[in-house]
Amino acid sequence: MSAIEEGFIPLSVAVLTISDTRTVDTDRSGRLLIDRLEGAGHRLEKREIIPDDPYRIRARVADWIADPAVQVILTTGGTGYTGRDSTPEAVSVLFDRPIEGFGELFRQLSREDVGSSTVQSRALAGMANGTVIFCLPGSTGACRTGWERILHEQLDSRHQPCNFANLVIPGREQHGS
């Protein structure tokens, strides 16, 4: 059965890898996200790799939030506690509304793979200008967990009782609780 089934609405997704060392050839986490989103039937709208610099991260994400062609932004990298990790500080100020449950659920699910080390994950998400933004850690395993255990369903307009896809598709905003 095809990933694109009746009622599925593909979304336009931008993928931003935040790393001081990765290139297109070595960016396994960004590649995994792209493979998964395209395999699910979504469209890759933009892709970029930038250094872990809070001002460059904020500028790129702000540009994509302002672009009506981008409905979803997935970032990978910069969510830990090392001196260069600055994704939460760079991106959270752009949110109109944070999605607290994303980081909470991500850390809960990650505990199965990395144990107590999950407390060092600062994965986060939010909405801004009708765009949903999910910031994942830079490891391929973390991106796999985030996609397979949360994002795959939450970016599918058919997922019930609610999903983020219907919040970014014009005219489809869900009502209720």
Automatic annotation (TrEMBL):
Residue span, MoaB/Mog domain: 14-158
Functional summary from the UniProt entry: May be involved in the biosynthesis of molybdopterin.
A GO biological process held by the record: Mo-molybdopterin cofactor biosynthetic process
Family stated for the protein in its record: Belongs to the MoaB/Mog family.
NCBIfam families per the UniProt record, alphabetical: moaB_proteo (TIGR02667), molyb_syn (TIGR00177)
Domain of life: Bacteria
Keywords for the protein's UniProt record, in alphabetical order: Molybdenum cofactor biosynthesis
Gene3D superfamilies: MoaB/Mog-like domain
Pathway: Cofactor biosynthesis; molybdopterin biosynthesis
Any one of the GO CC terms: cytosol
Name by which UniProt lists this protein: Molybdenum cofactor biosynthesis protein B
Keyword match Chaperone: no
